[in-house]
From TrEMBL:
Domain Phosphoribosyltransferase: residue ranges: 78-144
Superkingdom, natural source: Bacteria
Family matches, as SUPFAM superfamilies: PRTase-like
Full protein name: ComF family protein
Record family assignment: Belongs to the ComF/GntX family.
UniProt cross-references to PANTHER family, sorted A to Z: DNA UTILIZATION PROTEIN YHGH (PTHR47505)
Entry-linked InterPro entries: ComF/GntX_DNA_util-trans, PRTase-like, PRTase_dom
Length: 148
């Protein structure tokens, strides 16, 4: 379902994924968030795909202010699929920046992405958010995939 959504432009899958994200144990995590930030795509990948899947998933939480471009991609990266854990980490190192540092200071941020595999992408995003002054960063993904 997630691959169809992400790669085949199957946005009709979105309501199902929103329902997965709105389960009670997830909502406890969401309640403490001051704002939500989707993991950004590089503009060239956004143009190719036509949408940012993390942004669409973040819209499952209208009760949390959504900052669409709080995080920005500073540079294009390779797709993470097919890379080793170390390559994934190196691939995203330094790839993200906070566009509005004052908005982050002292805040609890809900960082949203589609899939957690090794955690390299969300770890790097969380690192730049914390370095910019976020009090706490909680990560929410619609799926967890084991790296093999």
């Amino acid at each position: 379902a997630i691959k169809r959504f992400k790669y085949n432009r199957r946005q009709d899958m979105l309501p199902v994924m929103h329902s997965w994200l709105r389960q009670s144990h997830v909502l406890e995590l969401v309640q403490g968030a001051d704002l939500a930030a989707p993991v950004p795509l590089h503009p060239s990948r956004l143009k190719q795909r036509g949408f940012n899947q993390a942004l669409l998933l973040a819209q499952a939480f209208p009760e949390v202010p959504l900052e669409r471009e709080l995080l920005i991609r500073r540079r294009h990266t390779l797709p993470q699929a097919g890379l080793t854990p170390r390559e994934r980490q190196d691939n995203v190192k330094g790839a993200f920046a906070v566009s509005q540092p004052a908005m982050v200071k002292g805040k609890n941020i809900l960082l949203i992405d589609d899939v957690f595999t090794t955690g390299a992408t969300v770890r790097e995003c969380a690192r730049v958010l914390r370095r910019t002054g976020a009090r706490q960063v909680n990560v929410l993904t619609v799926a967890r995939v084991r790296y093999e």
